[in-house]
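Example record for the data management plan.
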Amino acid sequence: MSKFWSRLLWLFVIVVIVGYIIVWLLPTPQLEGTATPEEREQVVAQVRQVADDLPKEMRLDKVKAHPRRVVEVNVTWTDRTTAPDTKDRVAWAELADQVAVLIAKEYLREDWQVNVAMWFKKSPFSSSLPYGLAGRAAGKEPEGGPAFLYR
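Corresponding structural encoding:
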């Protein structure tokens, strides 16, 4: 390889390395409407308080706030004797919707949304899909409702 091409190759390598360093040092811009990590932590702490208001048959499992102001909540039904029929997906979706309405009215700020997945574990080998889903936007009159699965 001639001297010219090796110098050109080294120049290209240096430009690429400098470019990567500049991109690495620049802060990532926050998209408009996204929640900061501090906001998300506050919302998760607020939503975790709903565990006291849930019926004794329900257990709050996972609460995760996403950057686009959506809170994901997993609730597990723990009592086998009072559980709705596992084939009645409408009843499970309505249970999830009750939890979603409670969270949307009492525990979330106006510009957030909650998605609730209702689980029921009979055994470790039972279904890995939620039995009921519901989503609501926060506010005094939360918009949204249950999502009827497998109708």
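Summary line stored alongside the record: The chain has three helices and five strands.
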